[in-house]
Amino acid sequence: MRRADRLFQIIQFLRTRRLTTAKWLAERLEVSERTIYRDIQDLLCAGVPINAEAGMGYILHKDYNLPPLMFDLDELTSLVIGAKMASSLGGKVKQGADKALSKLYSALPKKQQKEIDSIKIYAPNLKQVNYGAMIDILNQAIYQKRMVTIDYQKPQDDKSLTRNVYPLGIFFWHDKWTMVGWCSKRNDFRHFRLDRILTYQITEQLFTLENHQTLKHFFTLVIPK
What we know:
five-stranded antiparallel sheet; 7 strands
């Protein structure tokens, strides 16, 4: 859990309980009591009205409320469309998008909740190709800097190729999903369409890229100055 999320969660716990101990918070948030002490001190410095009962626990002032999020309609529309598009992928991306949209909705004033309800722009149905699970795995490999092994179907060819790839990024080009990576066999950048990847697996091999192998360098090759 990110620290910002933990601080937000602490406030939510304090709002719903009369008295809350550091031990109780530490157990719920799976951190040490020392971490809770530091978090409470930071919240106090930020102006959150928390009272400490010596040897007892913490009490949040009953009139305290988090300031409401304020967005204009254009900003809300952009956020909602982005979340809907992410949700349409399925997998962990969908779960994260749905939770984020739910958090946004619940944190907004009622007037802006109605504005979200009035947005009638819908994302394309990308679940028909069901790449959510594959994108989850490939994204994990990119984050962990692990090589992936794929079996890849070449266009207009019955044979498949096995490639060891350092995955760099996942892109949506018009109507196709593509993984860009550094191919160890070709010793160069390669595009792999997700609809042609037959099998995929993260290996235990970690990789460190040279400057000429990075996604930043790839962009300099494909995007004109």
